[in-house]
## 1
Amino acid sequence: MASVVTRIKQKQIAQLIEKGKRLDGRSPNDYRELKIEQGIIERAEGSARVRLGNTEVVVGVKIENGTPFPDTPNEGVLTVNAELTPLASPAFEAGPPDADSIELARIVDRGIRESKMIDTEKLCIEQGKKVFVVFVDIYVINHDGNLIDASALAAVAALLNAKMSNYEIEDGEVKFKSGYTPLPIKQHPITVTCARIGDKLIVDPGIDEELVMDARLSMAIDDDGDIRAIQKGGAGYFTPEQVFEIAKLAKEKTKELRKKLDW
Amino acid sequence: MNDKPERLIDKKGLRLDGRKPDEMRQVKLEVGVVPNADGSAYIEQGKNRIVAGVYGPREVHPKHMALQDRTVLKCRYHMAPFSVQERKSPAPSRREVELSKVIRDSLEPAIFMEYYPRTMIDVFIEVLQADGGTRCASITAAALALADAGIPMRDLVVACAAGKADDTIVLDLMDEEDKLGKADVPVAIMPNLNAITLLQMDGKLTHEEFESAVNLAIEGCKKVYDVQKEALKAKYVGIKEEAEE
């Protein structure tokens, strides 16, 4: 819900963007400062903290044994969950996941799943019976806009950081040994979100921009520069030309980020 | 149902159900199918069978959700337990929660929300049988139900998916193409305003493939739009005939 301050800022934001400027001095295609730390939670098999300006997201990866889905008996399982903790924003409430947190988790999930980032067949211990289950839990610590890109980056960083225990099969029984190996990684998807305000497009919307935006469009791009997942959100629309412009922009932006992150 | 086809496109370039790549399934639309609702519509697209109903503008429930300057649009996309091969639990899944949200976001741009402050408009969608592309068919039916309820709209909203089966960009994916194909791009548009109100994608597409998929989906939407208009007209022609009898 738009706060009173935002209503006052709304006009200012729109006028600035009309001139190609933004409230915090960024140009339309700039990300805020990005910081990624990995391995911050020792008890998790993998973890990462992402700061995108004042937006902060922590992702923990837990890896456990479980049973595979009947339709994919030789593949490990990936589940992504997101918590919009009441700590992170006055707009969030404690309670079961709402539509916003489910959407966030599913956008991050699709980026990882559709890009085939993890080689899930290598997570199979015993076909049809035992596989590794990878839990990706997204924790929002501070919401200052663009949770999608911050969460997607944090999830990928945490998975790159994750390790699973070594095991051997003895008399049909799985025995875990000392030592760890990293997850089998094939791709490094990066998600770029653009917002439309008036007829202008901006990358990485901050919270005030999100509250006045007409609509947003997020695209997950893989190592080859191809598109793997898309989600439009918000109660507005895009013209086809704007959609194609965002696709180009997303490709450029992920190239830049890849170089910076060495992904 | 149990055997996976080796190829989705045969040597002649035809699809499993004999369609050409840019050919739609048959779409049947009917308006005013739920007498108790303020507006309703029924769609058949391939084996999809979906009913959409609209209640409102009406009192907001719970009251604290009311907005002082506009109406609240609520949307519930739900699949019947018997709509898919393996019985689906009637409790809303995470997929249904997400789809309810993106369908809502696809319909809102068309509605003059500010005309009905402190009220709520409910859109209920029940998928009776699913055959690939249920979100698109749901949007097409729900927009028609909103129009049938007499809610002032900038334009209708109409949806259709395109995607990639084997190496071909195809229109209006059916179930097998949705599950075994290489990409799925559902698109909703307001046809008279050159506006895309729903866009999702999963799979893998180059930028060129993505552009042709979106353009093909828009062409598909325009074909469905003609059926939508006819369905809306048919209702009033029916009323006129009754009145004249």
## 2
Amino acid sequence: MTLLSVQNLRVTFDTETGPVEAVRGVSFTLNRERLGIVGESGSGKTMTGRAVLRLIRPPGRIEADHMVFDGHDLAGASESQMRALRGRRIAMVMQDPKFSLNPVMRVGAQLMEGLRQRDHASKAEARAKALAALEAVQIRDPRRVMDAYPHELSGGMGQRVMIAMMLIPGPDLLIADEPTSALDVTVQAEVLSILDALVRDRGMGLIFISHDLRLVARFCDRVLVMFKGRIVEELAAADLMHAKHPYTQGLLNCLPRIGGSREPLPSLDRNADWART
Amino acid sequence: MPLIEIDNLSVTFTANGRKVRAVENVSFSVNEKDSFGLVGESGSGKSTILRAICGLAPITGGTIRIAGAPLATPRGRPFSRLAQMVFQDPYASLHPRHTVDRVLSEPLAIHGLPGTDARIEQALTDVGLPTSFRFRYPHQLSGGQRQRVAIARALMLEPKILLLDEPTSALDASVQAETLNLLSRLRATRGLTFLMVSHDLAVIDHMCDRVLVMQHGRGVEELSRDALASAMMKTEYARALFTASADRMLGA
């Protein structure tokens, strides 16, 4: 019962200096589970997530042998077919709430907008659902947040608002691009447990894109490690400490640990050969 | 002699008739050449303390003394020669239409310091950037490179104190490692004093000698690095923060 199936996905940008391949032949399947995609900036992980939602505009091109979500062909779908899927069936939580929340609209208005326009809810219903969504992401004072503008919230709260907003329509697949990178550890843990509950209770599929390998391994069922547009290793999260690929091992080792030595942290060895498989 | 003394500091913002007590009666001091960490949830007030030191947030109670003297309002040039800030977001803290050269020469121009050319080249070398980056724009740099430019900018006036507001949280894990190594090296070679804010206990443990755990604008517990590493916290909140971080250390 595959939710999403991607075969040989390629994302290429036709620039003045020649084509730049951001994603070079990525293949994976996703059931109703949590899949982590890990890599550094420039590895192509964000572009992979955006390609699934066909959110890449020219000069970017998406090509795939096969990209199917719950029976819908994503690669060949028209823009209006994609619009029907985006938000409602597949949602994306972006990296930076500062750039994805409308800075000149109050948070409440943004949360209610989708409900009123897409789902034709009444103002009262929409408000109730918006408040419930904020409570679900553990915002302490949801009424104050409803009336606030995005710049009046801390970074972590902004990100939680965004998650709340994306989950209101109840999508089947959530693509989360670094959703917790601006959050501190206790809030990260809370937000991840919220996402965890959703994946379990609603049977949602989750693609969790991050540069934080340990976090992804703790939270996801399977992990794809990307380097320069390709997948260099695919493994079950539980097996992460036994990763075989030197790039994966490098990612694991470069993080500081509590109680670790104060010696310079090992830096990552990026061998270009790994991009050629 | 403490270089930074924060005594019963309070910062309250008033908006729409509501008061937000961002910082409430926080006290701590940082000795010269030490590295002090402020750790806590987002919204705990830790960044607000740094901003209050710089004059970017109002001090509504208590005092801040730097090198034994109270802060002037407005801060003025002597303050800039003493303390500089590195901000969290490398994508927001550099003017998008200024080249690296302009970013780095601006502090020198404001303070009338000579030898711009040589100082800029030295600054770039000190942060590990090639001098060929001098005339690039921020959008031509990666996040880690921009943060290095921000660090270079902070060091142009040769301050004694660096106020670091989550300097690596917007960076990839691997780039974070390189940036932290750079900061440690600069601190050692220049005898800098760091006041660093982070939500990541592992980063704080790696970089700081002492740490103040904050919650809801208040200081909860101050710990030495050894106490942190051996989990000798006295308060429940500090322990919860530690456990949440330690959890992330797979197999450690």
